[in-house]
Amino acid sequence: MNEQNLQQNAEKRKRVFSAIKPTGNPTLGNYLGAMKYWGDMGKDCDTLFAVADLHAITVAIEPKELRENSKRLFALLIAVGIDPERDVVFLQSHVTAHAELSWLLNNYTMFGEASRMTQFKDKSKKNPDNINVGLFDYPVLMAADILLYQADIVPVGEDQLQHVELCRTIANRFNNRYTPTFTVPVGKIPTYGARIHSLSDPTAKMGKSEGEGDGSIFILDTPDAIMRKFKRAVTDCDTEIKASESKPGITNLLTIYAAENDITIEQAEREFQNCSYADFKKRVGEATVETLRPIREKYEKLRADDNALCELMKMGAQKAAYLARKTLDKVYKKIGFVRV
Ligand code: TRP
Do residues 24 and 82 both lie within one domain? Predict the structure, then answer.
């Protein structure tokens, strides 16, 4: 490739930002639905991934749990394929620009707009004793996360699209009030990821909370735990291994197997044509054990050396802070703050 081509390529490279909260324990659903693809994304795009620890305190959390969850998630992101050298992976609280920009953006966000966020309404209902201002402000911090890095694309779950829309509104308002400052990002629900349901209630999403019991496969589960949970997975009363609306349990297991092997549901159905439910569940369990094994092994290596893990965190934070500071400085200047 000649120099000109290289440059054109560099210009076309999109910047992708996403973040996940260190609450609960990441599941097979998180992996097959999103995390599995995050490593590859860095080949064609400039990618940034944050552990959204500042977002995690909007719902009460024990200090020990926040600390452990944050380290676990950071190590897991690397274990699933994000490259700490090539990509930018960091803890949100390590880059103070997030909190700073979020205060500034509060003043360009209307109370009515934030009040319409369905996640705020849902969470208020679920935690009536702790409807704090942080919970209300959550989407503004999220807008700061995205806008600091001039991200073009924000891969998110469906429940977060409304927040990305609000981020666009804020960015446009700021750009129009002053001069173009922020890239207006696009929220994207990945089309490749599989939607995985609970093994014990296949009509519900596979949940991240530890209390979910046998319905959730956690990425770091031991092979024994994985096999036990698949053995107990809900099926239905006939014997046919075919995906259909009336067979959510079987459909879920086929979806898991297909996603793990990068094949279609139809191909998976064919593989299990004359299989009993018991054998089918065992084989999906085995496939899951093998899918998760290398991730768990890499994770354990990363967690075995806390100093080395902290160094990786520092490296990510430094790279992120450099980019974030550039945007933040511009924002301060445009608003009219005295810079010395
Ligand atoms: N709110 C997101 C979630 O719950 C996590 C998040 C925080 C995020 N900041 C973000 C996602 C910025 C995308 C972009 O899943």
Answer: yes
Q: Which domain holds residue 274?
A: 210-301
> Strands, E, within 52-92: which ranges?
88-91
Asked if 108 contacts 69 with a C-beta cutoff of 8 angstroms, the reply is: no
181 and 229 together in one domain: no
* Terminal CA-CA length for the chain: 44
pLDDT over 60 (residue 301): yes
**Model pLDDT, residue 190:** 84
Q: Kindly report the CA angle at 236 between 230 and 237, in degrees rounded to 5?
A: 130
182 and 54 within one domain: yes
Which residue has tokens 């700073």?
A: 100
Is residue 260 in contact with ligand 1, taking CB distance under 6 Å?
Answer: no
147 and 131 part of one domain: yes
- Shared domain for 228 and 87, answered yes or no, is no
Pair of tokens at residue 23: 């609450």
Of 30, 54, 138, 142, the one to substitute when testing ligand 1's pocket (max ligand atoms within 8 A of C-beta) is 142
Ligand 1 atom 8: residue of nearest CA: 19
Domain assignment present for residue 204? The answer is: no
Neighbours of 203 (CB within 10 A): 10
pLDDT at 1: 46
Pair (132, 225) in one structural domain:
no
Q: Is-contact 201 234, C-beta < 8 A?
A: yes
Is there a contact between 104 and 67 (Cβ–Cβ < 8 Å)? Answer: no
Same domain? 170 vs 245: no
pLDDT tens by residue, 163-191: 999 999 999 999 999 999 999 999 999 88
Q: Which residues are catalytic?
A: 123, 205, 208
Region 43-68: mean pLDDT is 97
CATH number at residue 51: 3.40.50.620
**Is 146's C-beta closer than 6 angstroms to any atom of ligand 1?**
yes
**Residue 198 Cβ < 6 Å to ligand 1:** no
Domain containing 265 — which CATH number?
1.10.240.10
Q: Is 88 in a helix, a strand, or coil?
A: strand
DSSP 8-state symbol, 94: G
Is residue 230 in some structural domain? yes
